[in-house]
Amino acid sequence: MKKRRRTNFNRKFKNRTIGIFLISLIMLFVFAARMIYLYNSIYKTKAAEQRTRILKIPAKRGQILDSSGNVLAKNVKVNCLYYFPQDLKEDSRNKIINGFSTILDMSGEEIDKVLASKKTVRVKENLTSKQVKEIRDLGENSLSLTVENRRYYPEGTSLSYVLGFTNSDGEGLYGVENFYDNFLKGKYGLNIFAGSRNGSLISFEDNREVKSHEGKNITLNIEQSISGIIGNILRDAQEKYSPKSISVIVTNPMTNKVIAMENSPRFDSNNPRKGRTEEEQKELDGLKDKEKLNKLYDIWRNRCISDIYEPGSVYKLITAAVGLEEGVFTERDTYECKGYYNITKGVTIKCYRWYDPHGIQTMEEALANSCNPSFAQMAEQIGYAKMHQYLKAFGFGDLTGIDLIGEQKGLIPSSASSMNIAQLVTMSYGHGIAATPIQVITACNALINGGYLITPTIANKIDGKELHPKEELVKRQVISQKTSERMKALMVNNVENGGANAVKSPYYSVGGKSGTTIKLENGVYTSEKTVASFYSAFPMEKPEFSVLVVVDEPKGMNSGNAVAGDIAKRVNDEIAKLKNINKGSSTESELTDIDVPNFVGETLRNAVNIANSKGIKIEIINTSDSDGIIIKGQSVDAGAKINKNKVISLIADDSGEAAVKIPELVGKYKNEALSILKDTNLKITHTGDSEKSRIIKTNPPVNDFIRQGDTLELIYEPIKKKKDEKKKENTEDNSQEQEDVENEESKKQEEENINDSEE
To answer: What pLDDT sits at residue 46?
Structure first.
């Protein structure tokens, strides 16, 4: 019985032991399987991630082409060097420092910045084949070389404000590169670097690549040939006028497609962080990081769409169109210019020819003469509601919708009811509102294309597919076809017979309008600082090109006609030559029939008299009300020959410091001379018989220059004496003469005696 119990106990113990063992064995298998599973999944993945380096490969970016298929932006293969800080071994640090210094010519500061980073760093790009070999020879696992696409702009500075540029990651910044980035960039790929179990890279070649998908090509409305021409013209104009900036836009006025858009000075899209001039580069080098970035933003700003200015007299075209469209006046209605126009107590509108008023003139003549008082009267006829309604209808105060980033709306009165009489009349000639150049040329194009306000466009096609059907771009018809035709005729008259004749050509018909805006500085208007602008279009039978030139603060000559008109003329002529637009038959002799006098040093009064006597048209931009101010410069050199309709711009110095040219006074009596000199601020002295005699000479002489406030001596014939005094003087003179003769003979005799004794 006892034995049986023991046997049962042993059997149970044995069974339990086997059970426990089997359970333990199963658990061991489960645990092992779980470990194998985990190793082959999560931990294996994490370990692989720790040994893998992944770099994004920018896709081959789409090309940017001009309207003729010329490449404006393309891709080039470049060698890039990356640094992986987590793989740097301490004993390799000095080796890398020496390598960076000798192979890459990096400064100690640049090297320290790279090695201090805790993230992957793109050290250098555009490495030469020699540099690539020397980097490979270092054999450092913390360094990796890749071949990537980089953006290249064959034209350099040309069209930089239209194209923009990309950053080191291939992302579009500014211009077309930014606006159409989603189309251009494509889909990036991956460069996967495999590594060993200890986390270091095995080799430069041991990597895998997930291919990228290239972006789409963009074709622009831009004509590179015209942009190149404008670039050369702007370089010369920058040197000639030394302005703060120049902006030029060329469009097809019928479609408002942008054919060219340039600013000066220009940055280089291949090196956008470099200053545009040596002075600007020195300035950048001296700035801290934040200040430097703000300066770069200013350099990259496209002034054609981002800068606002008062359009000045170019806006008179809009005022004229509104009045004609509404039937308020016709081209034959007359207005009187007295030099000034008082609109309300304390508010007076001044004509630029206040010293020689236009008098009675038609609306057509007032536009050609660019007469502010006449346009103030027109604005009063049009009224607040219509002026503000058309201001908005022509697109002012709103975005044009151009396909570029950074466009500004400009500034206009919020409503008709918010305007006062001064705002109403000054608006008529482009003051009191601010617009961008792209707004101005878009509005002016509507005047000559049948009255249609059209969205301006830079891009035309994406991979050959049209982007903008014309019907989608037309916003509205602002004026009728009939009014548009009348405006074309008025613009031609401005050039043929008015103050916009700087662009006149014997070879093609051209119309336009100049504008000169005197800038407000520290609450004071100064004629020394202006914005000179000019809108022109040609050939006017069927306009194909419109050109807007805006020059900010030109030095010396600073009127719209003289400065912006000069630039516009060169642009127009070069385009006409390129496009073989030559419909005229005038000869050179028809253009040269008046010799230009020298106005420099004359008072304003004298300059006007000289110009009137020769039948020459002049314009003077100044803020003075004195006709005694002195002319210090002229837009056409003295002695040149001009057409009788050409307007010469004169620079008047109202500071009182300009030198006065001594006028022709010989042969004139005292009162005549003083009348001529009364505005010169000179001190006058008289020598000789100033009461009865004529002037025989001056000191300094005629045509010399003398500073205002200095003394001018007028020399007359000697005073005539009475007969008996004259007779007495003659007798005394004869006695003295006889005495002198006797003394001379006596002296001669003494000399002969001395000579005889010596012999």
So the answer is: 59
